[in-house]
Amino acid sequence: MCTLFRWVAVLGILVGCSAAAWGRDIHVNNLAGNDRYLGIRPESLNDQAGPVKTIARALEIAIPGDRIVLANTGQPYRESLTLFGSRHSGSETRPLTIQGNGVILEGADEIDADSWQHVYDNVFRFRPRHLAYQQLFLDHRPLVRILCTHPCTTPPELQPLEWCLYGGHIYFRAEPMKRPEDYALTVATRPVGITLFHVQNVAILDLTIQGFQLDAVNAHNSARDIVLQEVTCRGNGRAGVAVGGASVVTINSSLLGNNGEAQLLTNPYSETFVRQSNLLSNTAPAWLDRGGVVIVDDKRVEGGIDDRQADDKEAPAES
Questions:
Q1: CB count in 10 Å sphere of residue 257
Q2: Which of 178, 186, 215, 263 has its CA 20 to 30 A from that of 241?
Q3: Residue in 246, 251, 312, 244 with CA at minimum distance from that of residue 286
Q4: What is the reported pTM?
Q5: Buried b / exposed e across 283-297, counting CB within 10 Å, b at 16+?
Q6: Arithmetic mean of pLDDT over the chain
Q7: How far apart are the C-alpha atoms of 270 and 202, rounded to whole Å?
Q8: H/E/C letters for each residue in 64-92?
C-alpha cells in the first residue's frame, strides 16, 4: 500500500511539472542569445537560462502551446522557418505563438561585389543561386523589375535602377558613373519565411516578413486554425500569404504589399478569412484566386480582388 501511495505521489508531481511546463515562454535574442541556452529568461546573466539566438532553435525545444518571444534588437532575423506536426501546434485556448514584437524576418542577403560582371554601359549582371522567383532590393525596398516578353532573345532595355531576370542572370542598370557595389543591394536567398505543414492552433503576431524567394507565409497543407495578427508581408518573390489544401488561415489587421505575383494566393480546399487588413495591388493583384474559400470581413468573395484597403489601416511601409 505504501508503494502505491508513493507511485501516486510521484505521478502527481510529474503531472504538476508537465502542467507548469505547458505554455512556457521561450525567449530569442539574435544579438545576445546563445543556442546552447534554455531560453527561460529574456536577458543573459552568464548562465544557461538566457535567451536562445535563433528562432529555429526555439522551435526545436518548443512543446505544444509554448510562446516564442522575439527580442527586437534592431537587427533582422535572417532565418527560414518550418512549423510541422503536433509539436508545433497548440490548442484553442493556448495556441503555439510566435510573438514578433515588431521584428523583421529577412529572406535577403547582400550580394558579393565580386559576383557582378560588366555587360555594357551601366548594365551589370550576376547569377543568383535560385532563379524561379526573385526580388532585387535597394535599401530593403524592391526595385522595379522589367519582364522579358516572348520571344526574348536579348535582355530587355533597362532604365537606371531597374532589373530583369534573363538567361539565368539578374541584370541591373546602375546610374551614370556608378557600379552595383555603390548601392546597398540585396537579393532573395531564402525560399519561404514561415512554412506551416500539418499544424493547428498557431498564432503569429506583430512580425514583418520580407525578402523571401517564394512566400512570406505558406500554409502548405493541413495548417488549420492559423492566425496572422498585425503581420506585414512585403517584397517577397511570389506571395505575401499562400494558403494551400485543407488549410484554414485568418489574417487580422495585417498588411500585404509589394509581393511579386499576388499579395494573397489561395489554392483548392483552403479557407482564408481576411479581417480589417490591407491587400495592396501596387505590384500584383491583392488576391489571386486559384481555388478555396475566401471570406473578407464576414462576406464571401470569389474570383480574386484587385485591391483591398481597410478603412482604418495605413498603407504598408515600403520593403
A1: 25
A2: 186
A3: 251
A4: 0.85
A5: bbbbbbbeebbbebe
A6: 89
A7: 16
A8: CCCEEEECCCCCCECCCEEEECHHHCCCC
